Amino acid sequence: MEWTEETISRLRELWAEGLSTAEIGRRLSITKNAVVGKAHRLSLPPRPSPIRRGEKKQPAATPKAAAPAAASPTKAEATPEQTVQAVTAPVAAPQVEKPAQAATAPQAAPEKPAAKVEKPAAAPRTPARPKPAISRISDPEPKKRRGPTCCWPIGDPGTPGFHFCGATPLPGKPYCAEHAQIAYVKLRDRRDNVA
DNA sequence: CCCTGATTCGC
DNA sequence: GCGAATCAGG
């Protein structure tokens, strides 16, 4: 990993925003360990960590070769039924990334043509806060809308209850207003942080 | 189990 | 300096 001013800056921001290390890692395409490690090295303000390292020894780092010769093999139970189900099934993830520009964008983008003012967040595996802000909407019978629908994933792909939001998306966007908010992360103005 | 963050230590 | 391995709590 090449910790450039740039990446360090981003790390700082994300860290400051209270994102989890794993989340930061996902956004920077690195492991959470890298994030934590670097954060620690940078002396970034530690966030509430539940653990309190008591006294305990840990071989740590590459103890692979350290194979405890501890005998006493009294465990010989090959439960045949305990087959490993797909723990993390590589489900055919629906394209929730890279919002395709609507082919027919009547009003184009109201945003600045500056293009990259925003970027799609990583696949929203666990939306920060889906917010049940769905206040009472008088929409008793939406019937079948055939237009585009919000493709924000609800639930885990591959599980029975999984579905997409389905609401009417914003013009030119794959998500509805509600989900677009969390789907797109604004590129923060780093003017006071560029140093 | 999953998640989380912190620390250690070989590289 | 880096980060995987590991620990440890929820």
UniProtKB/TrEMBL annotation:
User: Which InterPro entries does the record match to this protein?
Assistant: GcrA
For region Disordered, the annotated ranges are 39-152
* UniProt-recorded name of the protein: GcrA cell cycle regulator
Biased amino acid composition, Low complexity: 59-112
The cross-references to Pfam families, in alphabetical order and at most eight, read: GcrA
